[in-house]
Amino acid sequence: SVAKVGLQDQLTMDSYGTDTVKELDQTSEEEYATQSKLIKEFITIPSIDKAWIFNSGSGPQAMVAMSQANLLANKRRKFMLSGHISKESSNLSVNFHWAPFPVEMTGASAFVPSPSGLKLLVVRNPDDKESPTKFEIWSSSHLEKEFHIPQKVHGSVYVDGCGEVEHIKGVPRSISVGQVVWSPSSKGSAKYLVFAGWLGDKRKFGIKYCYNRPCSIYAIKFRDASSGSDEPKDNAKEAFPIHNLTKSISSGFSPLFSKDGKFLLFLSAKTAVDSGAHWGTESLHKINWPSDGKLSELADIVDLIPVVNCPDDGCFPGLYVTGLLSDPWLSDGHTLMLSSYWHSCRVILSLNMLSGELSRASPNDSDCSWSVLALDGDDIVAVCSSPVSVPEIKYGKKVVDPAGRPSWQWLDIQNPIFKSSEKVTSGLSSLEFKILKVPVSNVSECLTKGAKKPIEAIYVSSSKSKENGICDPLVVIVHGGPHSVAPCSFSKTLAYLSSIGYSLLIVNYRGSLGFGEDALQSLPGKVGSQDVNDVLSAVDHAVEMGLADPSRITVLGGSHGGFLTTHLIGQAPNKFVAAAARNPVCNLASMVGITDIPDWCFFEAYGDRTHYTEAPSPEDMSRFHQMSPISHISKVKTPTLFLLGTVDLRVPISNGIQYVRALKEKGVEVKVLVFPNDNHPLDRPQTDYESFLNIAVWFNKYCKL
């Protein structure tokens, strides 16, 4: 049973000096059994990952890549759903006629359709160190070609943009290469590989979730047009020179050519690199691409979307996109479509490169989150979701006003891509959400205008929650990072908590993405105080509005959210009846020497890059301890559930274990689940399932739900 699985994981804690867990009583067994059935319905809701649109003789065709948790195999199941699109211009209706069943891509690491949609590349990476990587090229009816690449030639292949590429002549091994694109074809000019390259200093820090690593856009000649040969010069003794195209800027990634090939666009996280924040407000730039193929490393970099420090109310808050579509261009060739965070939502933006006009393409009055999946000519295929609604495909039809400005009329498709189970539909049917504006405290201490503005918190509740005049118990959700954001999008696990009777308060404290660079940069050097106060302000605001019962409030967070969770139960020991922390940062002093991102500890503690050293001083260690949750351990009395991954390199398990032992020493009720094969995200299907099952049972116990 699920209860026994949880028990087995807890028993592994004996080796860390905790007590053996007693057998579950019959009531607990029944609750685990009941909750396990419901959470499975939520965990196995499919995700819409990517989409492609192709124009064939019979009209536009859609191909959608989806994935779903496979609890038995503890992996993500990948599958493809295809269909054709029909449009009725008279009533502006659109329908996707899906194939009767999706096609599972068993064993596929990646699948990429050709631009025409006539062929499909399937990549199968090996599960061991001996077998080759397999490349398969499929047509509509059969396998056309198959290539096996031995591991001595090339290891596993990744298409997520951050994998390493096989070394080619001219690229120094000190550069980690990713996001490779071809330069435009031009008669008589050289063909180039253009890519993002990350330079390793004396030590390479972790890069996952870290956009503060210096990177540049490079180009290297791949074909010699003057020789008349289209073959790569693999056998040449001399390598082609490598060109750094973005020397004057500290960050450049996601290279993309304009439709006419005259410009090379790229994203930059220079605010993160220059300041030290692991993520920051991004910018978009372009450089001219020479028609003769003669590159210059002194090319002028033109700002298309600059960094926004302090946005005016209701205006664009800055760019937070991290990546671009492979073909984001409308038919005019100069309008670019992209998705970005805008406060607590994700929105679709339209950028006119000629006029510089940036506008919101998704509905202005929508508090849902929108992401562009693909373009159908000048129309948009997008995915839309909210905390109370599962992802749905929406179709945006372009319309132009008399002044020539484009906008999009958004249509529901008549045939949804998937249908939720009856239990999920029932659980979501009475839920509603709204975004709260919460005034910040200690405004006088803020240095910038942008850091004085209200924060946002997403409040999710049942429309029936106050029928008897009593509020449902509240779960306060704090995201990690800290420079991340919790958007108004669908979360399977949080929707599950909502469906069993909890209201949610999802807090985007100062330091979050989506609110301008001033607000983001106000947090470093003040972690454990400013962010804690912001969360407490949001909780108090909800109580004052009558949205929460102060006697039934719990708190949940992971990573930096776990840092805040353990800070909150120490600094506000009477506020929360229960807590759950997932791979939490509990002690910066013990983390700094063993994490893969020690620079994060210094930056968040001091607020600058200058203090970093491989040999922290006694003063450094004292500051780390002072700013850590463990400095408040003597005040904690909240029963707390810990969920820890044994192979976490970001916040190694010893950090949580030390805090757990300290709580047990002073008699605080603690429960610990250890996942032997999980790293920082704790996102493998079985881990996700068991984590939130135990969180629900833990909160139910103390909220008497």
From TrEMBL:
Reaction catalysis annotation: Cleavage of an N-acetyl or N-formyl amino acid from the N-terminus of a polypeptide
Peptidase S9 prolyl oligopeptidase catalytic domain sequence ranges: 489-704
Protein's cellular compartments: Cytoplasm
Keyword Cytoplasm recorded: yes
Entry-linked Pfam families: APEH_N, Peptidase_S9
Record SUPFAM superfamilies: alpha/beta-Hydrolases, DPP6 N-terminal domain-like
Gene3D superfamilies: alpha/beta hydrolase (3.40.50.1820)
EC assignment: 3.4.19.1
Keywords carried by this UniProt record: Cytoplasm, Hydrolase
Domain Acylamino-acid-releasing enzyme N-terminal residue range list: 22-161, 162-424
Family label: Belongs to the peptidase S9C family.
Complexes and interactors: Homotetramer.
Name assigned to this protein: acylaminoacyl-peptidase
Annotated organism of origin: Brassica napus
Lineage: Eukaryota, Viridiplantae, Streptophyta, Embryophyta, Tracheophyta
